[in-house]
Amino acid sequence: MIPLLAEALNPNPAGPTGVLWLVQKLVGPDAFERWGGTLTLVGSLGILLLLVVPIVATLFPLFAIWLERKVSAHMQSRLGPMEVGWHGWLQTLADGIKLLGKEDIIPAGADKPLFILGPIITLAGVFVMLAVMPMGPHLIPADLNLGLFFLAAAGSIEVIGVMMAGWASNNKWSLFGTMRLATQLVSYEVPLGISFVTVTAMAGSLSMQEIVRQQHGWIWNWFIFRNPVMPLVFIIYFTASLAETKRAPFDLPEAESELVAGFHTEYSGMRFSIFFLAEYVAMYVVAAIAAVIFLGGWHTGIGPFDAWIQGASGGWGGEDPSLAMAVIANLVGMHVVFAKAWVLIFVQMWLRWTLPRIRLDQVMDLCLKFLLPASVVFFMVTIGWELLPFESWTSDIPFIKDHLQWRLPRFAVFLVYSCLVGYWFFWFKRTFQDPFKRSVKEKPWVISGVSTT
Amino acid sequence: MAIPQELHRDVRTEEFLLNMGPQHPSTHGVLRVVVRTDGELVLEATPHVGYLHRCFEKCAENTTWKQVVPYTDRMDYLAAMCNNITYTLAVEKLMGWEKLIPRKTTIVRTLLFELQRIASHLMSIGTYGLDVGAITPFLHCFRERERLLEIFEEVSGQRLNYSYITPGGFQYPWPDAINRKIKGFCEYFEERITEYNDLLSYNGIFIERTKSIGVLSPQQARAYGCTGPMLRGSGIARDLRWDQPYLLYDELKKEGVFRVRYQGDKTPDPRDQMVDWSLGELGDCWSRYMVRAAELEQSRRIVLACLAKLDKLTDSEKEAGAGNIIKEADRAYTAPKGEEAYFKSENPRGELGYYVVSDGKPKAYRVKARAPSFNNLQVLTEISRGAMVADLIAIIGSIDIVLGEVDR
């Protein structure tokens, strides 16, 4: 058991990977001799990097909550928080302090141990997912060779925590919320898992770093453009991840207009804010997973620039670059991942403040009748695509054989989907402006079966 | 929708008694609904009312005719102006002053009635979005409602409980300068209706959530005495503004400013579909919602027509209708003993009626209010049977109750 675990944590026996590589560079006698005077500067930078993951994970909700308030406010022609700090950027901190100062209430009828344990397990389940999240070529807390599997497993811990909380509250609204949550989250884990498997089938590995490495090169090497169905797999993943994080339009477990506050009705003060924290960290985690497994991780999509990041960060190519460059390249990679994740988080917020909530039976319909079969079919198509002998087909065509190879179909997929998105925007602007036209064309009030009482 | 018997045989399930309200985010006030549920299914939902009872009818017997007006504000507090006007018209009918009311007063009352309808429907549409989980349309509706409230504030000094219309005319003289502002609002508002339809009315998820939910058949609607958008949503064309015109509606009807679509009518111009469409087809939540959404445009056109009429008035007519025909000293007016009157109008929520009886004293012998929300609420049990808990919220929202009026 122990050796197995050790092997899993350090899959590369030849030398440490991830942050450990940087640490070795810093503390090793080799490094000291080579870097001497600059060691102080670089060392402090390295320690900063070591701290980056936990700090980001803790500070992220502060910023995300502020952003969510601002995004919602501007969508609703309001200003949002404006008082505490510049444009209210310290508002979340002020709210956090307020929540800390509140009385810690545990209802008399509640199951006390479970009630206390619920939020802790929820938060732990979400935070532990950050352990395998690659931030840069060498910025990963633990590059498990079971990375994606670990994510799927840790994701289900959150469900247990929330169910504990809802059940222990001994409140009818909480029970309703918990029931909905269990139904929804367990169902949506299946399409989510299948989209993970689809990615694994292409990468040939569960390791997060290996998945990113497979997407090296230009933008059409990203997994989202790997074959014609991958953009749809991405949409399936994104939908399922919205359901997993209980975000609108899938916010049934805490539907405030129906279930008061759902599973956390009885929670107040810091315990409530822990649920809040967990939700926002989970938002980041699912967005970062999407960025890593579909959108190229820390690759920018510009071939030469990615090559520079890869070379400068060291470790893969055999050459030993300067440590300062390695730190910079890793930081650049981290910001690329952040940028991609933030775009997806913005989309999550955008959807939340635009769409109404769907009903439980519709949630299940969407999952079991649409997402699940579709994801299985796309998985099959992906496997078939990977087995295509494209090289042998093109072996007679000199230019394609020498220069294009697999890039050709990938580039075609990229081109077609980009055009589709562009057309959709154009079409959206043309059609959706006149509701009078729409009301005549579409007749949504004509329905199939009316259930009369 | 019946619960399959096999379910009970194979798995032992228990019914669950859920007490929704009086403190609940989406019971629109202090409605209490006791819900018997089987999982997510609602077996029976029983509304319990009376948490906001304020003895309106008894209070009205102890104050002068004019002093009742502020009490009517508090009935349907989202359409206070309509309540004022209806009560005032009932009293004027009792006193026999109908012929004495100047033309300008009538035009302004019609204008205010429709502006209030817009404000009320904005609230209704916005909170309905909130009930089904869409938060943004709510604030967009409030943005426009805010402009209306500013207009009302400039007219009456109040933002919610106006008490502006009193028997004989107005509490304060009508500020003519406000006409331009109202016109500006109407022009601005046209685009906003488009926005609501884009954002909410034709949103796929919204339609999925509201279609074929809480279906109220025309027979049931008649049997329970439902009125207003509830009734028209079920396909029964009954609108007192059209059927028993009061105020200026007779004139507007003849001029073709607005019309109520009857079944089988053709609408040649697609743009008119929206306006004439204050008639649903199925009686589901979406139909009731769309009746209100359509009445936004309908009311906007009526307001514009009223403004045009105000502009055409001669100076003497403007002078005559500036204030109240009752002088300060004559406030204790009386009607002969035994005189009675009943007046009803088409409120945003349905038919509001006031039955007033005089016994010769300067105060009412009896004031009876027929509140539309109360009658509409009765069908809740009937139409929510077999729905899901989320649907129950959508149904309560589509009935559009105001508890101040239900409990009064």
Please tell me about this protein's structure.
The complex is a heterodimer of chains A (453) and B (408). Chain A has helices at 2-9, 19-27, 29-35, 39-75, 91-100, 112-127, 147-168, 172-203, 208-213, 230-244, 269-293, 303-313, 323-352, 360-387, 390-393, 398-404, 407-431, 435-441. Chain A has 453 residues and is mostly helical. Chain A is globular. Chain B is mainly alpha-helical and 408 residues long. The longest helix of chain B is centred in the N-terminal third of the chain and has 29 residues, at 103-131. Residues 268-275 of chain B have low confidence and may be disordered. In chain B, helix 5 runs antiparallel to helix 18 (389-399), helix 6 runs antiparallel to helix 7 and helix 7 packs antiparallel against helix 14 (285-312). Chain B contains 19 helices and eight strands.
Brief write-up:
The complex is a heterodimer of chains A (453) and B (408). Chain A is mainly alpha-helical.
Salient structural properties:
heterodimer; A: 453 residues; mainly alpha; disordered N terminus; B: 408 residues; Cytochrome-c3 Hydrogenase, chain B; 2 domains; 3-stranded antiparallel sheet; 19 helices; 12% strand; globular
* Overall form of chain B: globular
CA-based shape of chain A: globular
Terminal residue distance of chain A: 61 Å
Largest interface: A-B, 47 and 58 residues
Oligomeric state of shown chains: heterodimer
Strand content of chain A: under 5%
The SS-based structural class of chain A is mainly alpha
CATH architecture assignment of the largest domain in chain B: Orthogonal Bundle
* Total individual domains of chain A: 1
Distance between the termini of chain B: 34 Å
Uncertain residue ranges of chain A: 1-13, 35-41, 433-453
Taking all Cα atoms into account, the compactness measure Rg of chain A is: 24 Å
The number of distinct β-strands of chain A equals 0
What radius of gyration of chain B results from the CA coordinates? 22 Å
Query: Total number of helical segments of chain B?
Result: 19
CATH topology group of the largest domain in chain B: Cytochrome-c3 Hydrogenase, chain B
Query: What is the β-strand count of chain B?
Result: 8
Count of domains of chain B: 2
Give the class of chain B from helix and strand content and strand pairing: mainly alpha
The helix content of chain B is: 40-55%
As residue ranges, the low-confidence spans of chain B are 268-275
